[in-house]
Amino acid sequence: MQDVAVIIPAKDEADRIGATVEAALGLPGADLVVVVDDGSSDGTGEAAERAGARVVRHSRNRGKGAAMETGAEAVRLLDDGRDQPRHLLFLDADLAGTAAEAAPLVEPVRAGEADMTIAVFSTTVKLGGHGFVVRLSRDGIRRATGWTATQPLNGQRCLTRAAFEAARPLAAGFGVETALTIDLLRAGFRVTEVEVPLAHRATGTDWHAQVHRARQFRDVARALAVREPAVVTRLDRLRAFRRP
């Protein structure tokens, strides 16, 4: 049954994207891999094409949320004429060969037991940060929904097309995973975690890594801010006041 499309947002991952695509193409039921080259300055798009992916390019970096939406739209167009839309499996570009282990993420969605699965990596890597962004996301999701996520920022997720469309528009940048979880749980969709032996490149401790974590923190905080009841109430009142 060919019922899965793999979507891989990628920026400057020329050294690993080929192996990631090749591994993803070997997943059961995955007959389509779409790589969204999000403004890369290296040969990411070319490497993905050589490995067998369909590539969509952003002329400038637009962020992870936008790349996910672009990839999903490409799949929707390619699904035209199919009886059922493909399930959407999102994978990070730097998984390399471990992407071959992502099949368990699809199984609960295919079986109708979940509307979205979130990966929990069984193999951990030494992280350069101190987990403050993870705590921010986890605590925010718990406040908003009552559910505690093990790895709330994990980008390895499988969704039904219906669940994905219900969550649009996606949150900007690195806030997308946190927002996806909150929005789908609040809408009554079933979300479950699945342990998988995947592994990506760990962020380091240099200034590039610190900037990356700062951007993560900013985007997650923004996604949470508009989903906190008190903030939403104030925004609704402000919008009502501004109406003519």
Automatic annotation (TrEMBL):
For this chain, one GO molecular function annotation is: glycosyltransferase activity
* Top enzyme category: transferase
Q: Which UniProt keywords apply?
A: Glycosyltransferase, Magnesium, Transferase
According to its UniProt record, the EC number is: 2.4.1.266
Pinpoint the Glycosyltransferase 2-like domain residues: 6-121
Pfam families with a match to the protein in the record: Glycos_transf_2 (PF00535)
Signal sequence annotation: none
Reactions accelerated catalytically: an NDP-alpha-D-glucose + (2R)-3-phosphoglycerate = (2R)-2-O-(alpha-D-glucopyranosyl)-3-phospho-glycerate + a ribonucleoside 5'-diphosphate + H(+); (2R)-3-phosphoglycerate + UDP-alpha-D-glucose = (2R)-2-O-(alpha-D-glucopyranosyl)-3-phospho-glycerate + UDP + H(+)
Kindly list the cofactors needed: Mg(2+); Mn(2+)
Q: Which family does it belong to?
A: Belongs to the glycosyltransferase 2 family.
Spell out the protein name for this chain.
Glucosyl-3-phosphoglycerate synthase
